[in-house]
Write a structure and sequence with these properties.
Keywords: DNA-binding, Elongation factor, Protein biosynthesis, Transcription, Transcription regulation. The protein has helices at about 10-35, 45-70, 125-130; strands at about 5, 70-75, 90-95, 100-105, 115-120, 135-140, 145-155. It is an alpha/beta fold and about 160 residues long. A hairpin with a 5-residue loop joins strand 3 and strand 4. Helix 1 runs antiparallel to helix 2.
Length: about 160
């Protein structure tokens, strides 16, 4: 089976979500189902159906998280150095607009572009792998070809 790379922070976030679902959300929805059952006829009981739907979502997410966590390979970026690879915080400058961006290359289950966490399978991350400070890289994006210069590569 394929292992998924993940940073320690990403792994901790998934474990915290799983713990919350099991210890807080699951008991709360079980209580909501019990309360809704006491209201009578289940066929026309919107509270009951809503709670059962929420329970299905929670149980599905628990199974998904347990599956992901069983297949992760936690890689600590602090122990790495050199050219761009998994875990690197890369600062780039767009050679056309002079706009600077900083991304950390992470696994697909912790990627969040708004928070600067770039999926290792994304076109930009794949183009950056193996590059070093001062290198130029061309990236094919949905908006066309973009040129970036690598300003810094850090591992935290």
């Amino acid at each position: 089976m394929e292992k998924f790379p993940m940073t320690p922070a990403g792994s901790a976030a998934l474990e915290a979500e799983l713990k919350n679902l099991k210890s807080v959300e699951r008991p709360a929805v079980i209580e909501a189902i019990a309360t809704a059952r006491e209201l009578g006829d289940l066929k026309e009981n919107a509270e009951y159906h809503s709670a059962r739907e929420k329970q299905g979502f929670i149980e599905g997410r628990i199974k998904e998280l347990e599956g992901i966590l069983s297949l992760i390979d936690v890689i600590d970026p602090a122990k790495l150095s050199g050219a761009v690879k998994f875990g690197a915080k890369v600062t780039l400058v767009d050679e056309d607009t002079d706009e600077e961006k900083t991304w950390q290359i992470v696994g697909e289950y912790e990627a969040n572009i708004e928070n600067g966490l770039l999926n290792i399978k994304s076109p930009i991350a794949r183009a950056l792998i193996g590059k070093d400070e001062g290198d130029s890289v061309e990236v094919r994006t949905p908006g066309g070809v973009r040129s970036y210069e690598v300003l810094s590569v850090k591992y935290a």
